[in-house]
Amino acid sequence: MSGIYIHIPFCRKACLYCDFHFSTNLENKKTIVDAICKEIKIRKGYLEDKIVESIYFGGGTPSLLTILELEQILTVIHANFKINEKAELTFELNPEDAEINYLKKIKKLGVNRLSIGLQSFNDKELKWMNRAHNAQQNFDCIKLAQQVGFENISIDLIYGSKFQTQDTWYKTLQTAFDLNTQHISSYNLTVENRTQLNHLIKEKKEKDIDNEMSSQLFNLLMEETEKNGFTQYEISNFCKPGYMAEHNSNYWRGLSYLGIGPSAHSYNDVSRRFNVRSNAQYIQSIENNNSFYEEETLTDNDKYNEYILTRLRTEWGCDMKEIESSFGGQYLNYFLKQLEPYKQKNFIDIKQNSVTLNKQGKHFADGIASDLFYIK
């Protein structure tokens, strides 16, 4: 199994909190699409003839692509890779781009899963985030997608902003459940270095994130999704039965994937590649057949640490037998030794050979993973 990720590096506006790579200048969009198609051809051997089980268009804002541009990319992918006819094909869609003919056409091209960037149902919050849509467009987008026949819809929600209380977050979640979508990705608002939010906080024009409130909102998120039939299969991802995101699950399972486009990452169990984070440099390098990426060969330590970081976030957790067979007894002994304080704090569950975080432990996932890393 393997997957392909396509990064579309354009947005209409820069969101307050976002540090993903994108540009609001759309003048070279066609040139980027052509470069993406050339990169696909250049890297057709990267997955070593593995069957591609998932394709994911992310960004940025993939819904800024025209139908012809999307078709162009998909045609090149199918010409250069073996694609499972039942492959999951996810397309990130912003609500302001939801138009019935557009939705019908992307569905006809094979898109069978939508990931809709709602973020909030509160107009004040959406405006503060500098989103390009309002709450009504959020509702309309989902209804249109359902009307067109999309049966696998994920929505993004952010918690932890200054507008939220437990009451408002509860109402947001109930609204999401009422919309009858199959998947929710919900992320705690964080302050990243290259963002307007970070700048405003440093200038004392915005307050920093209230971590205690965020913790309460996360608890409510876990409780309410469970009550409404969702499984928390990864710390930030919740699905109804049968609707786990295959593409993202491949990341967490450590399977191979190819990342195409500026800033995209690739992984093949031996090395990791990082494409340049610049549209202009990416285009120039692709056009002139120059290197457009950096590459890191992974050591056993790297592979073990990545296994811990990704698997600890999931419902299937870290498998002790898998650690021993993949990395050796030395790593397993270290893992068990480092795990002991968290057993004492009752942050983890151990069933058979699987170590998972319980609800309390999920609040400290990154810190626990860091303590389990093997550092020489």
Outline of this structure?
This protein has helices spanning 29-42, 67-80, 100-108, 123-129, 135-148, 166-178, 196-202, 211-227, 246-253, 279-287, 300-311, 320-327, 329-344, 359-362, 365-372; strands at 2-8, 52-59, 83-93, 113-119, 153-159, 183-188, 231-234, 237-239, 256-260, 265-267, 271-275, 293-297, 318-319, 348-351, 354-357.
Describe this structure in words.
The chain has helices spanning 29-42, 67-80, 100-108, 123-129, 135-148, 166-178, 196-202, 211-227, 246-253, 279-287, 300-311, 320-327, 329-344, 359-362, 365-372; strands at residues 2-8, 52-59, 83-93, 113-119, 153-159, 183-188, 231-234, 237-239, 256-260, 265-267, 271-275, 293-297, 318-319, 348-351, 354-357. With 376 residues, it is α/β, with parallel strands linked by helices. The chain folds into two domains: 2-250, Aldolase class I (TIM Barrel, Alpha-Beta Barrel), CATH 3.20.20; 299-376, Arc Repressor Mutant, subunit A. It has a nine-stranded mixed β-sheet with strand order 7-8-6-5-4-3-2-1-9, with helices on both faces.
Key attributes of the depicted protein:
nine-stranded mixed sheet; Arc Repressor Mutant, subunit A; TIM Barrel; alpha/beta; globular; 2 domains; 376 residues; three-stranded antiparallel sheet
How far the N terminus sits from the C terminus, by CA atoms, comes to 32 Å
Overall mean pLDDT = 95
The CATH topology of the largest domain: TIM Barrel
Work out the strand percent.
15-25%
CATH class of the largest domain: Alpha Beta
Order of helices and strands: EHEHEHEHHEHEHHEEHEEEHEHEHHEEHH
CATH homology superfamily name of the largest domain: Aldolase class I
